[in-house]
Amino acid sequence: MKFDILTLFPEMFSGVLHSSILKKAQEKGAVSFSVTDFRDYAENKHRRVDDYPYGGGAGMVLAPQPIFDAAAAISEKRESAKKPRIVLMCPQGERFSQKKAEELAREDHLIIICGHYEGYDERIRQHLATDEISIGDYVLTGGELGAMVVVDAVTRLLPEVLGNEESHKQDSFSTGMLEHPHYTRPADFRGLKVPDVLQSGNHALIEEWRNKESLKRTYERRPDLLADKQLSDKEKDWLSKWKKDE
User: Where on the tree of life does the source sit, at the highest rank (predicted)?
Assistant: First the structure.
């Protein structure tokens, strides 16, 4: 997969894209990253990319020309005949989720636009972007941090990126519920012990324990996730008991 990131602050990405899993993903050839300062595409001599809003008001608005032209130049160089998805990082966008990350991970090429100032010229939103994404109900100074979140969440889903191909399948939200608790050695840490079932070697019992704990954690912390979840009879019985015990 190829990521192209359009930003006014390319230096913000140097550490993130060249560390940890993202660095290893590039070394394996699973992904490539390119960061472009869209100020380089400004047609005016001062390389200005923003202007005052029509109708007045506070702040400055990102102009369409540099962003349209930067996206067009990148698209022209694409290796695939398929057009890239163009993601606009925006507080008004769709709330980013694991499901959205899985959807984007099936693409060959993503262009991510990081905004600044008061916002974007609406023509960018209506006639260039294919997706608008928000990472939460709050406003940041720019779209760079949100873009990093999207890049990380999508990259780790790509084939051969994680050491264990099953890892991401059991992540919180991938199953529709929060993940079960994890333990490692020692079995007894200062009197705090690992549940016996995890040391039993009985894989059927371990799997049942994990499913039960995953459901319990979701019920206690994110019950909203269970609203549309199809539960087995056993899971319904567990839920019923927990509700009675409250």
Answer: Bacteria
